[in-house]
Amino acid sequence: MLKRLFLIFLAVPLVELILIFVLAHFLGWMWTIALTVASSVLGAYLGSRSWRGWWDRVRDEWSQEGFPVHRLGEGAILLTAMAFMITPGPLTGILGILFTIPAIRERVSRLLVRWIGRRVLERFWPS
Question: Where are the membrane-spanning stretches (predicted)?
Answer without folding.
Answer: 5-23, 76-104
